[in-house]
Design goal:
six-stranded mixed beta sheet; four-stranded antiparallel beta sheet; 0% helix
Length: 117
């Protein structure tokens, strides 16, 4: 069964950094785009950024210049380096493989990121 497993979240102070990881047990991982999404309490899930199979990235305006997505196809893993974190970044972070307006897999458990003042 194809699974998404996110890790790396935690509690950090404003201005700090975290690196999230997402392992995806999809044998065709290297051929598909991946994305990071987040859902703050009481809000809808939103796109953070995506990376295509060829390495092209797309960022939400709110994270441009602070977050960097990367992938390691040999490890079936996608990463999210988050710098200069603010309380507005507090959310549960998820990864998935976008496919048009849908996603290739069920959502994983996500990883909680909490940024304190």
């Amino acid at each position: 069964q194809v699974q998404l497993v996110e890790s790396g979240g935690g509690l950090v102070q404003t201005g700090g950094s975290l690196r999230l990881s997402c392992a995806y047990s999809e044998r065709l991982f290297s051929t598909i785009g991946m994305g990071w999404y987040r859902q703050a309490s009481g809000k809808q899930r939103e796109l953070v950024e995506t990376i295509s199979s060829g390495g092209k990235t797309n960022y939400a305006d709110s994270v441009k210049g602070r977050f960097t997505i990367a992938r390691n196809n040999a490890k079936n893993t996608v990463y999210l380096q988050m710098n200069r974190l603010t309380p507005g970044d507090t959310a549960v972070y998820y990864c998935n493989a976008p496919f048009g307006d849908e996603f290739r897999s069920s959502w994983g458990q996500g990883t909680q990121v909490t940024v304190s003042t």
